């Protein structure tokens, strides 16, 4: 089974907490702070593996978590960093944000690495907070939280050449005779339920990867039938071989089929309209196809298409078409990025560090940075509390609250805490 769409959750490890510790050694009467920093949490990293062909591995496991960094220790010992976890994905995998459906990264090159969830940094130990006026800090910093997100993995095959056409026109048979692929072949519609790949060898240094794109029907660009499940694989082919049933079996008109398929390709992605396309009139071993072929060829060549005719069943006259495909392919620049920049996640869409707002008459301050600041604050300790207030002022929280109209004595809600505002 070919799996080309999966939704998974990735969670990076949290950073270890900084330690509050003191030197307590013999003959060192004024030891001072000695708390070490916490270790970095492990990240979740995607790796484009050229040996993978499907997303099957992600069908059975949907949640991936990296380890947390170790906490800091006494004697200024740092906590150990956690190991990153590597998730191998096939080359050609698009990674989307599950909430917005926008693209995060396109894993289109073998060996490509991308940090999909960043591990949290370790918190600072109290030894880091020593200043000329604060000789004995009694607080440390909480470790940073690791990033967590739900993503959609969407595989688009990186085939050089794609075979397109209506069901039962002979695409699978053609692939089987031009390559070593062994697709399932039968005389009914939708025999092929997943894209098949094969390597076409024409001689030393002359080869290309060909994909049999399963049968398309009218309305596919709108999701009818197998719809978008297979149209996505056409986007990345450098050249299309449009296979027609020259015999007109099942009372179909090959020319009408040709026009219908091209409408669906264009309807799905306008860029497909300009993709190089070679027409192959198949089933020329049948008398009906031989009768139709001259008129069909004249019409399509008149529209500017390169047309070949032959028989996949008998392999007659296939080789000239393959050499022409290879020639066109050599002069075709394959653009893998078929989507505009507007489809990608933008930096400003990501979670802010501090948010200051007024909701239903309440003044609320939250965000990842504030949560970390709260976690490293000991409110019974004067130095720690002063450090907390200084950070709020330095990061513009106090000024923003004034802009929102806060008055002396009113409440400010920060995470699960309620504070009274005063100058």
UniProtKB/TrEMBL annotation:
Its EC number is 3.6.5.-. Mg(2+) binds at residues 172, 192. CDD domains: Obg. Residues 346-423 form the OCT domain. Residues 1-158 form the Obg domain. Its main location: cytoplasm. Keywords: Cytoplasm, GTP-binding, Hydrolase, Magnesium, Metal-binding, Nucleotide-binding. The keyword Metal-binding applies. GTP binds at residues 165-172, 190-194, 212-215, 282-285, 311-313. InterPro entries: G_OBG, GTP-bd, GTP-bd_Obg/CgtA, GTP-bd_prot_GTP1/OBG_C_sf, GTP1-OBG_CS, GTP1_OBG_dom, GTP1_OBG_dom_sf, OBG_GTPase. It is found in: Cytoplasm. Its cofactor is Mg(2+). Residues 159-330 form the OBG-type G domain. The keyword Nucleotide-binding applies. An essential GTPase which binds GTP, GDP and possibly (p)ppGpp with moderate affinity, with high nucleotide exchange rates and a fairly low GTP hydrolysis rate. Plays a role in control of the cell cycle, stress response, ribosome biogenesis and in those bacteria that undergo differentiation, in morphogenesis control. Belongs to the TRAFAC class OBG-HflX-like GTPase superfamily. OBG GTPase family. PANTHER family: DEVELOPMENTALLY REGULATED GTP-BINDING PROTEIN-RELATED, MITOCHONDRIAL RIBOSOME-ASSOCIATED GTPASE 2. Monomer. This is GTPase Obg.
